[in-house]
Specification:
Keywords: Leucine-rich repeat, Receptor, Signal. One of its GO terms (biological process) is positive regulation of canonical Wnt signaling pathway. Belongs to the G-protein coupled receptor 2 family. Adhesion G-protein coupled receptor (ADGR) subfamily. It comes from Micrurus lemniscatus lemniscatus. This protein is largely without helices or strands. It has a domain at about 5-85: Alpha-Beta Horseshoe (Leucine-rich repeat, LRR (right-handed beta-alpha superhelix)). It is about 5% helix and about 10% strand. The strands form two sheets. It has a three-stranded parallel sheet with strand order 1-2-3, with no helix packed on it. The chain is elongated, with a radius of gyration of 19 Å. The chain starts with 5 loop residues before the first strand and ends with a strand.
Amino acid sequence: DMSSPMSLNISGTLFATLQSGVFDELLSLKVLDFATEYLTCDCHLRWVLAWSKSQSVQVSDKTVCVYPSNLHGKLLRDIRESQLRCEGSPELHTHQLIPSLRQVVFQGDRLPFQCTATYLDNSTHILWYHNRALV
């Protein structure tokens, strides 16, 4: 029943921010949990604070900022809108390749790599290099 109060847990999903209006159709939403190890608390999440107040939606105490470092570990719901800024250089998320040691692969084997970047526009290019040569 979509009219009874509901809770939405999208924790652990691979995202850093949420687009404004993403929850507009969930009129009975009362509790929202979107904890993720990449959560960037910047101007792009400002709308969440205003929206949660106007819609009486509680942001879970598990939804904690990871980036930027000055907000790391703080509950999103406890942050003031004025603290959610996008000025200055972006803090890029760091990733660790696991296992971190050299990998032996044979011709035809696959070795997946993942690249994640934030604050990109249409002029941004991502290039891969191996031994200083463009791949």
